[in-house]
Write a structure and sequence with these properties.
Blueprint (H helix, E strand, L loop, with lengths): L1 H11 L2 H15 L43 H24 L3 H19 L4 H16 L3 H19 L7 H13 L3 H19 L4 H16 L3 H15 L6 H11 L34 E2 L13 E3 L15 E2 L10
Antiparallel strand pairs: 1-2, 2-3
Helix pairs in contact: 3-4, 4-5, 5-6, 6-7, 7-8, 8-9, 9-10, 9-11, 10-11
């Protein structure tokens, strides 16, 4: 019935009326619309080059001239990658020569340029903040070291996702710098996250998970949370007793409950299990330095962790990692 009425109505309309309606509808659909904020120039300004006018180049390291910002955005991005790699190379030279403050400044210059173009999704930025944190730790600049490692965590969230197992080594750096500053609540929070991540991935009887549990219990005890520390230590000792090779862990957990007399040898700080060296590193953006990315489960002290090499695709985006874990080298040259 409705189809018949529509047909009759349409039949009574004159052709000029129908043509006018079609014309008006076409004009409405053809009206230009504003481009949403954040997408303007997305095709003409590739690789985030639309924000390149904010970069002056060389300011953080106190060297270099302004970067060229006129021309093809892909060429500009490559020039900035080359400049950032030069800063990275200069930082490595100074670090090798023992000029830690100068090396830190050059690393910061490299990170600043890369981050303003590719953001925290660039694995090279992740690597550089780890190096800055290690250098600040060596210089006893603990607040700056903590800030660098927390910035590295922000990069890791972009690369691996929130709550990823690969966060463990960076959280360990944060925890250790917080302990050194006597910021025990922050240290406990980091140790707790490490324990939960390792327990979830490896199981509660795994030596690495038990080692993380031991560090958490020790930090709780040091902060005066005796009841929680003792409960956790008792549970840890019971779990560790399931394997003969965990004898030192059992002893360390018992020492948390009953600390040894001052001056006597303690195993609580040396009983943690060896860290897992597995864990892949994502590839870097265009021109990323071939610096190393910390392995998934390494919990070594700041500045001493093993790392894995990140390759550099030429499209300016972070892709899946195919690099294998290798030993970190301070004189490693960045790839262009």
């Amino acid at each position: 019935m409705s189809t018949t009425l529509f047909s009759l109505t349409f039949a009574f309309l004159s052709l000029p009326v129908v043509a006018q309606g079609i014309s008006e509808y076409g004009g409405l659909m053809g009206t230009p619309r504003n481009v949403p904020t954040g997408h303007q120039g997305a095709l003409t300004n590739l690789y985030g080059a639309g924000s390149l006018d904010k970069i002056t180049g060389g300011q953080s390291a106190g060297a270099g001239s302004a970067l060229p910002l006129v021309g093809d955005s892909r060429v500009i991005a490559k020039n900035i990658a080359d400049k950032a790699n030069h800063y990275f190379s200069e930082a490595q030279k100074r670090e090798k020569a023992g000029k830690l403050a100068e090396a830190e400044a050059w690393y910061r210059g490299s990170a600043q340029m890369r981050e303003q173009v590719w953001g925290t999704k660039d694995p090279a930025v992740f690597v550089i903040y780890g190096k800055i944190g290690a250098l600040c730790t060596k210089q006893n600049k603990l607040p700056q070291a903590e800030a660098a490692y927390r910035r590295q965590i922000a990069c890791a969230v972009r690369l691996y996702g929130a709550g990823a197992y690969e966060m463990c080594p960076i959280l360990a750096h944060v925890a250790e710098t917080c302990v050194a500053q006597n910021k025990m609540p922050d240290a406990i929070n980091a140790y707790r996250q490490i324990y939960q991540l390792k327990k979830r991935k490896l199981g509660d009887t795994n030596p690495e998970a038990l080692g993380a549990m031991l560090k958490l219990a020790g930090a709780l005890k040091q902060n005066g949370n005796n009841a929680e520390a003792d409960t956790m230590a008792k549970e840890g000792a019971k779990l560790a007793e399931s394997a003969p090779e965990n004898a030192l862990l059992v002893q360390a957990f018992n020492e948390v409950i009953n600390p040894p007399p001052p001056g006597s040898a303690s195993t609580s700080t040396g009983a943690a299990a060896p860290s897992d060296s597995s864990g892949a590193a994502p590839q870097a953006a265009a021109g990323a330095p071939a610096a190393s990315v910390p392995p998934a489960a390494s919990a070594a002290a700041p500045g001493t962790s093993a790392t894995s090499t990140a390759s550099a695709p030429g499209n300016g985006s972070a892709e899946k990692n195919t690099a294998k874990s290798t030993e970190a080298k301070t004189d490693e040259k960045p790839k262009k």
